[in-house]
Design a protein that fits this description.
Layout (H helix, E strand, L loop, with lengths): L3 H18 L6 H5 L1 E5 L2 E5 L18 H8 L1
Antiparallel strand pairs: 1-2
Helix pairs in contact: 1-3
């Protein structure tokens, strides 16, 4: 079983990786990607930044959700 410190390190890794790969023009999206712990639940969040052009048909701004599913 993982300790709370190890789980927080994984959560921070998810946030860092998502910030690094986010589609950004001014940095607002990168600053909004974060996580909190409430009653033992890890909540990841990011600002909805709108559709990111034709090169991203899914409209996803960052890989936060995919990273959280993969690592948690």
């Amino acid at each position: 079983m993982l300790t709370d410190t190890e789980i927080r390190a994984i959560a921070q890794q998810i946030v860092d990786e998502s910030k690094r790969t986010a589609h950004v023009d001014q940095g607002t999206l990168k600053r909004s990607i974060s996580y909190t712990v409430t009653n033992g639940k890890y909540i990841f969040r990011q600002m909805y930044y709108g559709f990111y052009g034709e090169d991203n048909p899914s409209g996803i701004n960052s890989q936060l959700e995919a990273n959280a599913r993969r690592l948690m």
